[in-house]
Amino acid sequence: MMTDCLFCKIAAGEIPSAKVYEDEEILAFRDINPQAPVHILIIPKKHVASLAEVGEEDTALLGKIQVLTRKLAEQEGVAVSGFRIVSNSGPDSGQEVGHLHYHLMGGRDLMA
Ligand code: 5GP
Ligand code: ZN
Questions:
Q1: Per-residue pLDDT averaged across 13-29, rounded?
Q2: CATH number of the structural domain spanning residue 84
Q3: In total, how many domains does the chain have?
Q4: 112: in domain
Q5: Catalytic amino acids?
């Protein structure tokens, strides 16, 4: 755990979050400033700074996150209506929190 990392603290339960899924490796919780009716953040519990830092050893973890994305989209009722996954990586993307996370957004027309 990185002691000065916000999402490490959320993953460790030191900072509360509205959890929607948790297992040993992955946590999903609601974004505090939602940009869509469904706006969930999916993170690995292990500290990885961004997609710019993933390695071969993360293949299984990233695959699990993708399958979890599908399950959460179903649970939240947006699997059919549509959803979007975004992972900002690095300064030009506007990444604000330096711990790998995927935004799962849906519940309205994301093209509007
Ligand atoms: P980024 O810009 O790094 O891709 O996205 C960071 C996201 O984290 C933003 O959508 C922001 O609203 C969310 N966020 C920042 N701080 C917190 C927090 O303490 N709790 C929760 N649940 N979300 C947060
Ligand atoms: Zn972290």
A1: 98
A2: 3.30.428.10
A3: 1
A4: no
A5: 101
Q: State the Cα–Cα distance between residues 44 and 46, nearest whole angstrom.
A: 5
Q: How far is the CA of 56 from the centre of ligand 1 (A)?
A: 27
Ligand 1 proximal residues by C-beta, below 6 Å: 6, 17, 29-33, 41, 88, 94-97
Distance CA 104, CA 112 (A): 17
Can you spell out the DSSP letters for 15-64? S---EEEE-SSEEEEE-SS-SSSEEEEEEESS----GGG--GGGHHHHHH
Residues 57-103 pLDDT 10s: 999 999 999 999 999 999 999 999 999 999 999 999 999 999 999 99
Q: How far apart are CA 55 and CA 92, in angstroms?
A: 21
Does 111 reside within a domain?
A: no
Structure confidence by residue, pLDDT tens digits, 41-60: 999 999 999 999 999 999 99
Expressed as residue numbers, the domain containing 75 is 6-106
| Structural tokens at position 25 | 């490796």
